[in-house]
Specification:
It contains eight helices and nine strands. By secondary structure, the chain is α/β, with parallel strands linked by helices. The protein is globular, with a radius of gyration of 16 Å.
């Protein structure tokens, strides 16, 4: 059963070594993420699942100890997802969203529960995502989720996806749903519109929605902003 969840943005820029000259611009987001991860530990879960979007070929399970790297972003920095070491043949490199989560957990010195990662196909339907979430929630008596994902990358003319007038409304609806633990509203997010608006968090958020069905959790929005023209949200459900 899901007992707690934290929602964090997934840009590699959250890692100061990657951000370099702009390292301090996301300090408020980092602080909110630290608070959200701390609330996960306080829930005393039996298992923590880290959920993030994965590019084609990167979806699936990532065991504890799976390696990640920020070399693709110009930084010689490696991370591991929790403690342990994957069995031979299971040591796939973490997708960027899960690598950022691994960095957050390492920064928090996570030791509250075993960790496992789930890379979600960015094109997965809401029904598929919800089904994945239900499976995670049913896997242990006390389950926590760390859910990684961004809002629209089309908030300004300098955004990665340029300006789309629909982006602000989409992000406002997502922020309300995340801040109030509104499962139905998350599941109602339109995959096609999310794709057009370059929303990296849609599929992971809908996994969370499936996991939270019937759990009766309350939500709080800890951070909301759109630096670099991308919607970033931090929320805690408990």
């Amino acid at each position: 059963m899901l007992v707690a969840a934290a929602v964090c943005p997934s840009p590699p820029l959250l890692v100061p070594d990657v951000a370099t000259g702009a390292a301090h611009e996301l300090d408020a987001a980092r602080a909110a993420c630290a608070d959200a991860v701390g609330l996960l530990a306080a829930a005393r879960p039996d298992r923590l699942y880290v959920v993030g979007a994965a590019p084609e070929g990167g979806h699936g399970v990532y065991p504890a100890g799976s390696p990640g790297s920020f070399a693709g972003f110009g930084v010689d920095l490696g991370v591991r997802l929790g403690e342990g070491r994957p069995a031979d043949g299971e040591a796939r490199l973490l997708p960027a969203s899960l690598a950022v989560a691994a960095w957050l957990l390492d920064r928090a010195r996570w030791a509250a529960a075993p960790v496992e990662g789930l890379g979600v196909d960015e094109t997965a339907t809401p029904d598929v995502c919800a089904g994945l979430g239900r499976g995670l929630a049913d896997s242990a008596e006390r389950v926590a989720l760390l859910v990684m994902g961004d809002g629209s990358a089309c908030r300004t003319v300098k955004a990665p996806g340029y300006l789309d007038e629909r982006a602000e409304g989409f992000d406002a609806a997502a922020a309300r749903a995340l801040g109030t633990a509104d499962v139905a509203a998350l599941l109602a997010l339109d995959p096609e519109l999310a794709y057009e608006l370059k929303v990296a968090g849609r599929a992971p958020w809908q996994v969370l929605a499936g996991a939270a069905e019937g759990a009766g959790l309350d939500g709080r929005l800890l951070f909301e902003d759109a630096p670099y023209g991308v919607g970033y949200f931090v929320a805690a459900w408990s």
